[in-house]
Protein: Ferrochelatase
Amino acid sequence: MFSAPKFLGSSAASARPARAAVLLVNLGTPDAPTPSAVRRYLDEFLSDPRVIEKPRWLWQLILKLVILNIRPRRSAHAYARIWTAQGSPLLVQSQALTDALDRQLKSACAGPVSVHLAMTYGAPALRDVVAALNADGVRRLVVLPLYPQYSATSTGAAIDALADALKTLRWPPELRTIGDYHDDPAHIDALAQSVLAHWERHGRADRLLLSFHGIPQSYVEAGDPYLAQCRATADLLAKRLELPREQCLLAFQSRVGREEWLKPYTDATLRDLAASGVGSVQVLCPGFAVDCLETLEEIAMENRALFLEAGGKRYEYIPALNDEAAQVAALAALVRRHTQGWAEFAPGEGGGDAA
Ligand SMILES: C=CC1=C(C)c2cc3[nH]c(cc4nc(cc5[nH]c(cc1n2)c(C)c5CCC(=O)O)C(CCC(=O)O)=C4C)c(C)c3C=C
Ligand SMILES: [Fe+2]
Ligand SMILES: [Fe+2]
Structure:
């Protein structure tokens, strides 16, 4: 027997005035720093064909029989090193950014605008958040994945989850999506300001290393614009900081598996720098809007130990922009440029986006 489709909706929704919302989307994180919670998270994340482009049945066999029996314990240990009383840093910092952007847009926009957070994997699930906004009468939605550089593995996966969520709605909202903001001048300026503020407090190091999350090399060869966008961000930032290109290096972290990923690798670069007598390094991760496992554990802890053990003398991690005013202002302006013609986002009594 065929069953009729069940679309979500609210009888009250059509009676309410149009409302507009912004949805920030990040990757997702486990519910707890335990092997069982990490296993659930990795199972969902690594089952996504956007993330792992291998034949389905073969990958599911490897994932279920090998990866999910080994990695959760190791990753849970890493999560435990950075877990806070409020929870996973990725969730805590993403929520703080969401709240700050909500305040900023409420004060700058003419209409009723609110900002919400959803995750591609885990909670708060994109499907649940979109359904709740729809039931609440939101008729205009702008979706901003928190990845400055587009990759099919991150932004593409978020858009897939959004499309799945929309399929469940009887009356989906009008939609604008933001694909990337890797060369947005206000974003570059926010990154530059954070480096300048760090230099002000700590002085400069011999090298500034810009470390981005890696992806398999084959994805770039198949057309993913990620590498080009990382390079463009690095070039713009070096120019804005007036740093000679040889002092500002680009590298890729967080490699998983045996396949070739984007090079140079961050850990190998740090080892080579120490071996060649470079004493001090400052590391910035411009691909991460907020701090998370990959910045706080891999970069600020693991790679620090690696650099110092290889003979380096000074290693500093420059934190992600998180809910800093400059990032909030840059994202507010980005959202408003993508909502041209939507009256709710027009300048309100507060005027523009105060930096
Ligand atoms: C194995 C394939 C992976 C691809 C491709 C990938 C791309 C990618 N990831 C991010 C952002 C983040 N990744 C994070 C964690 C993380 N990433 C992978 C694997 C791939 N990522 C794994 C297995 C994990 C989990 C941790 C671990 O077991 O090592 C995170 C942090 C999540 C957190 O909870 O803090 C972020 C953020 C981007 C931007 C990207 C492509 C450009
Ligand atoms: Fe990742
Ligand atoms: Fe990692």
User: Anything to note?
Assistant: The longest helix spans residues 56-82.
